[in-house]
Amino acid sequence: MGSSAPLRIAVIGAGIGGLTAAIALRAKGHEVVVYDQAAELTAIGAGISLGANGVRLYDRMGLGQAVREAASDLHRIQFHHWKTGEIFHEHPMGDWYTDRFGAPFLGLHRADLHEVLLDSFDGTPVLNHRCAAVRESPDGVEVEFADGTKTEADVVIGADGLRSAVREHVTGPDEAVFSAMSCFRGLVPVEKVPGGDRMGLTFFLGPGRHLVVYPVRGGELINFVAYVPDPEWTLESWSSKAESADAVAAFDGWNDTVVTMLSNVEETGRWALYDREPLRRWSTGRVTLLGDAAHPMLPHAGQGSNQAVEDAAVLAGLLSVAELPVAEALHRYEQIRKPRTRQIQMGSRGNAACFQLPDGPAADERNARLVSLPDNVAWIHGFDAEEELAAA
C-alpha cells in the first residue's frame, strides 16, 4: 500500500511526541488512534523548554498561539557562579533570539503543553492500554494490550518513552544506560525565589553539580532542575518523590538564591537519568519509533521535547507522500532523523561534565567559550525539520 491513501495509524504513547504526531497525521487526513498505559492523564512532570526548532513547527500546525499563551518567554540566558551567585556570562534572548531563529525560546510546565495538545487532538486517547506485543505482517500490524484486547493498524508508532515496549519489537531487547546522576525537580511560586521575577533561562554551575532554572506558566512559577551525581538513586519515574531537605543538603554552601528556592518547593520530584546507545535502526516495514522511544537523551541540551516534535513533523510528512510505500516512508524517516538526533544525544552526554567543573582553569576556559554560545548552538535552534524533509 502506498501512503497516498489515508492510513490507519496506532500511536502508542500519549505524551508530547505521541500527541504531536497524532495531530500532524490527522491534519493530513489519516485515521489516528492514540493509546496510553496510564489510567488517567495527570499533571505530573515539571518544566520543559521549547526552542525555535520546536515552536516553529507548532506554528505551522496552528498551535503556536496556544503554546505561547501557556508559556513564559525566556528573554535572556544567564550563568551564575555556584557560591557567590555572581553572573559571569549573560546574553539576551527574547527579540534577539526570535529575530535570529524565527520563533521564541519558551519555558512551559509539561502539563500545560500537554493540555494544549489534548485540546487540539480531535478525540480522546484510549487509556489503560499497555502495549504487550506487536505482530507484523505484510498487510498490517496487530497490537495486543496487557488486558488481552487487540487492535489492527496499517502503521504503528512507538512513542512510549525510554522503556518502550514497541522498541523491543523493532530492535530486540536492550539496556538503558544509567548516567550515575539523578535530578531533583520542582516548581516554586515566583515570589518565593529571590529575583525570580527577572529570571530567564538561568544556570548555576558548580563543582560536581548544577542547576537549570526558568519561569513557566507566564512567570507564575519558577521551574528548577538540580543535577547531582548519585550512583545509588536508580529510580527513573516522573512520579517519584524526594524530601526537599535532601535537595537543600545536596547544595549546602551554594548561594542564597539556590538555597532559598530549594527550601520553598512544596513537592520535590527526583529521578535517575538514563539514555540508551543510539539505535542501529528505528523501523521495520510497518512499525517505527519516535521521541524518547527512538533516541532517549539526557536533558543537558534541553532538546528532548523539541526532537520529538521534529520527528513528528518529518514522519507525518513522509507518510503523506503520494504513492510512497509505507516501508519506504519509514526507512526515509529514520535516514533523515538519525544523524541529527544521534549528534544531540551524544552532545547531551558530554554537557553535564562541562557544567560541573570545579573552580579553576578548566572552568575559566569554559566560561570564556560561553561568549560564542549563540553561534555554537545555532545548528540546533536554527534547524528547520520541514525544510530538511523538502530537501530530501
Commentary on this structure:
- The protein is α+β, with helices and mostly antiparallel strands and 392 residues long.
- The chain has two domains: 1-41 and 125-175 and 278-350, 3-Layer(bba) Sandwich (FAD/NAD(P)-binding domain), CATH 3.50.50.60; 48-109 and 177-275 and 357-392, D-Amino Acid Oxidase, Chain A, domain 2.
- The chain has helices at residues 16-27, 52-60, 64-70, 94-101, 110-120, 165-171, 244-250, 256-263, 304-318, 326-355, 361-369, 373-376, 378-381, 385-391; strands at 8-12, 31-35, 47-50, 72-73, 76-81, 87-92, 106-109, 131-137, 140-145, 150-153, 155-158, 177-189, 201-206, 209-216, 221-229, 241-242, 268-275, 287-289.
- The strands form four sheets. It has an eight-stranded mixed beta sheet with strand order 6-5-13-14-15-12-17-16, with helices on both faces. A four-stranded parallel beta sheet has the order 2-1-11-18, with helices on both faces. A three-stranded antiparallel beta sheet has the order 3-7-4.
- α1 (16-27) packs parallel to α5 (110-120) and α9 packs antiparallel against α10.
- The model has no long low-confidence stretch (mean pLDDT 93).
Class of the largest domain in CATH?
Alpha Beta
Number of domains: 2
* Poorly predicted parts: none
Number of strands: 18
The CATH topology label of the largest domain is D-Amino Acid Oxidase, Chain A, domain 2
- What is the 3D form? globular
End-to-end Cα distance, whole Å, is: 22 Å
Assembly level: single chain
The largest sheet, given as strand count, sense and whether it forms a barrel, is: 8 strands, mixed
CATH architecture of the largest domain, please?
2-Layer Sandwich
Cofactor: FAD
InterPro entries: FAD-bd, FAD-dep_Monooxygenase_BioMet, FAD/NAD-bd_sf
Domain FAD-binding: 9-345
GO molecular function: monooxygenase activity
